[in-house]
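This entry is passed on directly below:
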Amino acid sequence: TCFCPLPDGTIMYYHDAIDSNSQQLLQEIVPDYQLLKISEEDANFFACNAIVADKQTIITPLFKNNLWYQL
């Protein structure tokens, strides 16, 4: 998976897994500050398979890099 909406309206997604038309549409309807592009490494760890349990709890498989701080 490559797309995960978060409770605050942020969209966590893997840019390279989405076609150019969909990327353009995302950029048109979602403000830049709410687009969280994850790395290929995080995508390979299925970070976008996250489960949003409530407004403050996000349960996700393993992730690398600085994704924790971006969430």
The radius of gyration is 12 Å. The mean pLDDT is 82. DSSP finds three helices and five strands in the chain. Helices lie at 20-29, 40-44, 67-70.
